Structure formats: structure tokens, C-alpha cells
């Protein structure tokens, strides 16, 4: 199954998209996203040596922070003038592209042979940094009116249910490593299907116009991450992890923020959903493109 994992993931995305498009009631799958993602992360954490999860102020951490909080905002600044002149759309794009992923990036990075344990160790730092910096970024791009909209609760809840709980369970059930390795591919396929099917019907023609910007961001951050890894002289697994961290965004966490915006900004949530779907396709491609940089960690 691992030999054909890319085809399986693409098939799950395609099936989910068709299901969401053909069956509007597939939106009822949305509550299953968090449990599916939590289970996937639990299985991922089972395969990571827990002794390596202490964050250290080294070159890897510096590269991750610079990639996410310097280069990523610069990439957003480059595309911002070309975004549709619609405040809701611009708000959605900023919310999602200015917040680095703290959950499934660990899974995708691991599938490509990245240093997942080091990336996992950075999640508390990434979480705290984005909570502090997101209001500042919104102020710079949109002015003071929207800077106060950032609610820390979705971020903290995601960290608790998608990082702390699965990681704790993994620490208590280390004997399940062998079974966990076999479950990775089907669990990833189920997660991709669930996210895509539940969100597909939210898209409309007006929102599709932001898709090229999301694709550009993925490509730009792949290039930036590669350059950053060379500057910091990182090894293969660390380089892969830095590339994935810079490219993946916290869409599933900021979606509640977007949904809580005033009615005149309601489209922002759909803009966030569009990024999720583009990114999932991009991550499958990233696994294929960057997966040959180094041998995969045992279990992937």
C-alpha cells in the first residue's frame, strides 16, 4: 500500500471532491475532520521517538521561524496588491496564509522523509508566535479595524486536541508502533476524503479566483524553503521539514475565526476552505517531489 500511497491520496481527494460536489449533504462530515486528524496525528506520533521532542534553539528552529514569520509574510505581501479588491476575500487570504500549520504538516513532512520529530517539537513556539504576530500582520495589511478579531481559543483548542491529546496517548501506548505504520496510508486517505467532501460545496465561482494565489504561495515557499535550508546548511530530513512547514498553513484552525467574522465578511470562511483544498493537493505533490531528498524515517 505504501508503494502506491500517492495514487491513493490523489484518489481520496478526487473521490472526496466528487462526493462533495454531487452530494451537498456531505457537509455533515465536517464534524468528523478533527477526530480523523487527531487519529492520524496519534498514529504519526506513535512512530516518533518521544525523546527527541525537546525544542532546541538551533539552526533548524531558526530556519522554521524565519520561513514562517519573515519569508511567508513577504510572499503574502507580493500577492496582496493583486488580490480582488474585496475586503472579505482579502481577510480570508490573510488569515490563512499568515498562520503556519501545527497539525497535518507533521504527517506530510514525515511521509516525505522530513524530520517530523523536530517539526513537532517546534509546534508550541509556532503557536505562540502566530498568536502574537497575526494581529500585527492584519494591522499592517488591513489597518486597525480587523487586528482585534483574532481569538486565541481556536488556536489553543487545536493545540490541545490535535497535539497534546494525541501525543499523550502515543506516549502511553508505545507498543502499537508496528500496527501504526500499517494504518498511516488508509488513515491519511480517510482524512483527505473527509476534509474534501465536507468542504467542496462551499466553493463558488467568485472564490475560485483566489486559487492561483494559493498555488503561487505554495510554489514560492517551496523555493524559499529550499534556499533557506541551504543557507542554514540543514541535512536532508531537516530541509524537507523546513520546506513543508513554510508551505503549509493553519487552515483548519483559522476556519472558526473566519466563521466568527461579521456577516459582511462571511465570504472569508469560504476563502479559507479554498486554501485547504488547494493545499491538500499541493501536499500530495510535495510528498512526491521532495520525498526523494532523503530516506524516509522508519515506519513511513
Low-confidence runs of at least 5 consecutive residues: 294-300
Rough shape?
globular
Give the CATH level 1 class.
Mainly Alpha
Structural class: mainly alpha
Portion in beta strands? under 5%
How does the major sheet shape up?
A: none
CATH topology: Na+/H+ antiporter like fold
Q: What share of residues is helical?
A: over 70%
Q: Could you give the order of the helices and strands?
A: HHHHHHHHHHHHHHH
**Total count of strands:** 0
CATH architecture: Up-down Bundle
Mean pLDDT across the residues is: 85
Number of continuous helical runs: 15
User: Radius of gyration, rounded?
Assistant: 18 Å
CA distance, first residue to last residue: 11 Å
Domains (count): 1
Main location: membrane
InterPro entries: Arsenical-R_Acr3 (IPR004706), BilAc:Na_symport/Acr3 (IPR002657), Na+/solute_symporter_sf (IPR038770)
Subcellular location: Cell membrane
Keywords: Cell membrane, Membrane, Transmembrane, Transmembrane helix, Transport
Amino acid at each position: 500500500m505504501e508503494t502506491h500511497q500517492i495514487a491513493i491520496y490523489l484518489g481520496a481527494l478526487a473521490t472526496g471532491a466528487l462526493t462533495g460536489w454531487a452530494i451537498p449533504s456531505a457537509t455533515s462530515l465536517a464534524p468528523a475532520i478533527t477526530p480523523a486528524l487527531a487519529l492520524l496525528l496519534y498514529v504519526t506520533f506513535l512512530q516518533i521517538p518521544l525523546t527527541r521532542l525537546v525544542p532546541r534553539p538551533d539552526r533548524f528552529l531558526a530556519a522554521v521561524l524565519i520561513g514562517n514569520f519573515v519569508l511567508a509574510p513577504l510572499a503574502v505581501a507580493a500577492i496582496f496588491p493583486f488580490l480582488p479588491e474585496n475586503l472579505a476575500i482579502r481577510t480570508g487570504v490573510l488569515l490563512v496564509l499568515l498562520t503556519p500549520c501545527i497539525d497535518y504538516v507533521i504527517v506530510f513532512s514525515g511521509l516525505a522523509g522530513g524530520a517530523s520529530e523536530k517539526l513537532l517539537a517546534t509546534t508550541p513556539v509556532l503557536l505562540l508566535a502566530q498568536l502574537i504576530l497575526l494581529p500585527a500582520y492584519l494591522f499592517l495589511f488591513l489597518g486597525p479595524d480587523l487586528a482585534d478579531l483574532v481569538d486565541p481559543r481556536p488556536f489553543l483548542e487545536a493545540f490541545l486536541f490535535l497535539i497534546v491529546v494525541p501525543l499523550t496517548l502515543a506516549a502511553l501506548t508505545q507498543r502499537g508502533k508496528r500496527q501504526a505504520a500499517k494504518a498511516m496510508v488508509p488513515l491519511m486517505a480517510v482524512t483527505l476524503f473527509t476534509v474534501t467532501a465536507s468542504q467542496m460545496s462551499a466553493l463558488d465561482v467568485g472564490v475560485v479566483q483566489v486559487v492561483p494565489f494559493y498555488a503561487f504561495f505554495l510554489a514560492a515557499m517551496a523555493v524559499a524553503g529550499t534556499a533557506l535550508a541551504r543557507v542554514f546548511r540543514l541535512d536532508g530530513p531537516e530541509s524537507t521539514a523546513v520546506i513543508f512547514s513554510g508551505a503549509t498553513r493553519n487552515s483548519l484552525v483559522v476556519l472558526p475565526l473566519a466563521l466568527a467574522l461579521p456577516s459582511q465578511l462571511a465570504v472569508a470562511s469560504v476563502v479559507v476552505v479554498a486554501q485547504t483544498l488547494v493545499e491538500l493537493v499541493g501536499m500530495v505533490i510535495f510528498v512526491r517531489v521532495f520525498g526523494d531528498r532523503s530516506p524516509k524515517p522508519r515506519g513511513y
